[in-house]
């Protein structure tokens, strides 16, 4: 008689709890001392990415139990559903096929009887055609001037991904083209972008899946007014629309040939691989964008085909489970020792917390386990002088990811050696500590976990692989916790209430149903304006 998967899973969780009780106080220094092969055994490499997870509070037995946990949650079958169009976004009855956007395999993938491989190919050709024309100075504004100043308007997944990539690939930016990003509804954001822009040479990209997101719609309308006020009457020449809502984009003023499609099976935080990545192609060239897709595709293949004990995203996710659910850590820090990745912690904050910051399971009840920790971090070495005090001597255990390039992005090898030495030293210091009985202020307890993720150089291909690696890591977490990683219902309530607050700003009297704090804040605003 076959076993019950739910029962199997509960048994493995209990095995892990018992295992935790036996090794919770083990010293990593002792683990290294007793196992000379530990560093090699707990390191993996794929492509140009090398991951050393040996400085974690685990044994081989820990990993074996974590693999058993993944098997009890049918992880391998879930991975296949992810790649083949299973409707794993169960609350919205949708597939989550961002991997199809970067696939180099022309095999058909069907969503509701439509071969989406053909749709993706067609949209990529549209992007390439427009990018080539843009770089050849063939895309002109209403007054005939070539467009070379791009302002991308979007928020959340329509902003963080492309913003990160353009900033990270600063060494690959094409000359004489400027790409900037506007997200916040705070007027200061778009005002800054417009203040030194020439209306005649500015192209606005409006990226919104619904084409009705408040912030994006408001900023888009401000951009349109700015163009009209400055004599650009044919505004359709100055706008691109990227959306799943074509009628709304065309009604806004986007021309038919300037409309780019995204689909409901592409989540916002997974959309940089789609036409939402157009500003990347404009800033760096379409060939570079293709290299990003290639790096992501290669990581997809690694994730899909490697066994668990050789699978980097799987192992990283299982380590997250280990700390979050057994050590009861509440945060996870990401520290890139690479100035090019200064925006990565914010990007990962959305990826992990919007994907997995949930308390309802895929079965509709409360989750049995703690889900996503708080994601935070900053670039090294700056962060050493900001919050590493807490990492080394604070009362909370914080797992850390260190990222760093092995080769310098500039010709200054001296700076790079200092950078990399600090990165390696921090992982060593967190692990081994330094005891000082005579002066407790100088005592470093150590035994604090970290993972080192090194890459040869931050090329477009490597960047694509890194971001795909983190996407898959988030997916595995969600699978183990039994939640849907592809919806985000938690963002809706605040938006709905903001509309009511706005009505109260314009009403003579506030809604009597409001709490007294909210009433007082509304009155304060009205009193000062």
Amino- and carboxy-terminal Cα gap: 72 Å
As for the number of domains, it is 3
CATH class term of the largest domain: Alpha Beta
The global form is globular
Which range does the strand content fall in? 5-15%
Which oligomeric form is depicted?
single chain
How many strand segments? 13
The unreliable regions are none
The helix tally amounts to 19
Q: In the CATH hierarchy, what is the architecture of the largest domain at level 2?
A: 3-Layer(aba) Sandwich
Q: Averaging pLDDT over every residue, what do you get?
A: 96
The CATH H-level superfamily of the largest domain is: Glucose-6-phosphate isomerase like protein, domain 1
Quote the CATH topology of the largest domain.
Rossmann fold
Q: Numbering strands along the chain, what is their spatial order in the largest sheet?
A: 1-2-13-12-10-11
Alpha carbon gyration radius? 25 Å
| Secondary structure category | alpha/beta
Provide tags for this entry.
529 residues; alpha/beta; Rossmann fold; globular
């Amino acid at each position: 008689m076959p076993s019950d998967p739910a029962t199997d899973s509960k048994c493995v969780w209990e095995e892990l709890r018992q295992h935790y009780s036996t090794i919770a106080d083990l010293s990593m220094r002792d683990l290294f001392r007793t196992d000379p092969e530990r560093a090699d055994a707990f390191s993996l490499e794929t492509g140009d990415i090398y991951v050393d997870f040996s400085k974690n509070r685990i044994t081989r037995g820990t990993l074996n139990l974590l693999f058993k946990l993944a098997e009890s949650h049918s992880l391998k079958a879930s991975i296949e559903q992810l790649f083949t169009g299973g409707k794993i976004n169960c609350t919205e009855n949708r597939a989550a096929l961002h991997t199809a956007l970067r696939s180099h395999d022309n095999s058909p993938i069907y969503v509701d009887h439509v071969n989406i491989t053909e749709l993706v190919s067609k949209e990529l050709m549209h992007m390439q055609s427009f990018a080539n024309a843009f770089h050849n100075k063939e895309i002109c504004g209403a007054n005939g001037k070539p467009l070379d100043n791009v302002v991308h308007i979007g928020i959340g997944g329509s902003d963080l991904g492309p913003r990160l990539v353009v900033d990270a690939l600063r060494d690959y930016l094409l000359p004489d083209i400027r790409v900037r990003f506007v997200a916040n509804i705070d007027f200061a954001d778009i005002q800054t972008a417009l203040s030194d822009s020439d209306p005649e040479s500015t192209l606005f990209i409006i990226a919104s899946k619904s084409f009705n997101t408040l912030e994006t719609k408001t900023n888009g309308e401000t951009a349109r007014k700015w163009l009209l006020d400055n004599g650009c009457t044919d505004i359709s020449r100055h706008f691109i629309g990227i959306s799943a809502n074509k009628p709304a984009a065309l009604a806004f003023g986007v021309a038919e040939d300037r409309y780019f499609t995204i689909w409901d099976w592409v989540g916002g935080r997974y959309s940089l691989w789609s036409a939402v990545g157009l500003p990347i192609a404009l800033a760096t060239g379409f060939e570079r964008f293709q290299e990003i897709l290639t790096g992501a595709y290669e990581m997809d293949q690694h994730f899909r085909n490697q066994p668990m004990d050789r699978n980097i995203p799987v192992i990283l996710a299982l380590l997250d489970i280990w700390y979050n659910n057994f050590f009861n850590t509440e945060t996870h820090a990401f520290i890139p020792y690479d100035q090019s990745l200064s925006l990565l912690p914010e990007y990962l904050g959305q990826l992990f917390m919007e994907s997995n910051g949930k308390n309802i399971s895929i079965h509709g009840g409360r989750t049995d386990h703690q889900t996503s920790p708080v994601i935070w971090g900053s670039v090294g070495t700056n962060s050493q002088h900001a919050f590493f005090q807490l990492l080394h001597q604070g009362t909370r255990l914080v797992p850390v990811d260190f990222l760093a390039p092995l080769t310098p992005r500039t010709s200054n090898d001296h700076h790079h050696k200092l950078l990399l030495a600090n990165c390696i030293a921090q992982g060593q210091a967190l692990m081994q500590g330094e005891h000082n009985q005579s002066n407790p202020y100088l005592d470093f307890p150590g035994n604090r976990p970290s993972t080192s993720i090194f890459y040869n150089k931050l090329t477009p291909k490597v960047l694509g692989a890194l971001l795909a690696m983190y996407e898959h890591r988030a997916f595995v977490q969600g699978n183990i916790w039994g939640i849907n990683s592809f919806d985000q219902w938690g963002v809706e309530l605040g938006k709905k209430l903001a509309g009511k607050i706005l009505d109260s700003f314009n009403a003579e009297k506030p809604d009597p149903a409001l709490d007294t704090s909210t009433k007082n804040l509304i009155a304060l605003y009205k009193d000062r304006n």
